[in-house]
Amino acid sequence: MTQRTDFYTASPDAMKALIALEVAVSKLGLEKSLLELIKLRASQINGCGFCVDMHTTDMRKAGETERRINTVCVWRETPFFTERERAVLAWTEALTQVSTSHAPDADYEALAALFSPKEMVDISLAICTINSWNRLGVGFRKQPAA
Q1: Which pLDDT belongs to residue 3?
Q2: Angle at 101 between CA 100 and CA 107, to 5 degrees
Q3: CA distances for 134 relative to 11, 74, 112, 114, 140, angstroms
């Protein structure tokens, strides 16, 4: 697969805005491990090889286990994730696939049982942000370093 337009050089002002959003999300007070789970799961669903590579690397550097990293894509089938992580992973899937999921009440209620309204909005914004990155990565065929 050949990389298409470099979106950083093609529209630096747009990229500065998206980077600013990414920085803002990182400062909302959510656990870094939750943010990385969001980023990895959304990137898996969206098929963004660049982002999957980057976030699995970041998770390893942060001390995440290979077992958990390898099973994020099948998190429902494993005992390796906490109730909070499961709620976030379900919500990530629901919002990433919103055209077909329609953000089910059950996923919303599971999130609401464990997170404050502010945290729920912050989690949702983190999901929106990685989905934006994924759409750029997939659309412009951004490639991980070999």
Answers
A1: 87
A2: 175
A3: 16, 20, 26, 27, 10
